[in-house]
């Protein structure tokens, strides 16, 4: 039993060790102004891999290894960071629709410009 718990703990620790890179990537892309849906989709795929990996470990964790809580918390932190990143991408995507045209007026058509 102790050996199996130690094995699961090692697996959970590996999950915890790898999540900071995921968080750093999101932070870097946000700082670069690259909160786009392409980046969100890439990060979603990475998060899915973490979730599947964590689920696989949990399925073999018959004795509730103590490292499971830290691994679940680390993946949850990734979920929250991705949700924030997705909101930033949505905001960036829709920001152009909310900006007024120059002078707050709609651009003139050629016919309107000729009449002025």
TrEMBL record:
Chain residue ranges for the region called Disordered: 94-116
Pfam families named in the record = ChrB_N
Going by the entry's taxonomy, the superkingdom of the source organism is recorded as Bacteria
Annotated ChrB N-terminal domain residues: 5-87
Q: Mind telling me which InterPro entries this protein's record contains? A: ChrB_N (IPR046858)
Q: What is this protein called?
A: ChrB N-terminal domain-containing protein
| Originating species | Planotetraspora mira
């Amino acid at each position: 039993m102790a050996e199996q718990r130690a094995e699961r703990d090692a697996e959970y620790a590996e999950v915890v060790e790898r999540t900071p890179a995921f968080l750093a990537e999101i932070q870097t892309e946000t700082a670069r102004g690259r909160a786009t849906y392409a980046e969100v989709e890439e990060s979603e795929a990475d998060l899915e891999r973490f979730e599947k990996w964590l689920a696989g470990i949990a399925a073999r964790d018959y004795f509730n290894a103590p490292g499971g809580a830290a691994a679940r918390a680390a993946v949850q932190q990734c979920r929250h960071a991705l949700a924030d990143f997705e909101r930033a991408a949505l905001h960036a995507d829709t920001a152009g629709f909310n900006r007024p045209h120059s002078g707050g007026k709609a651009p003139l058509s050629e016919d309107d410009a000729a009449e002025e």
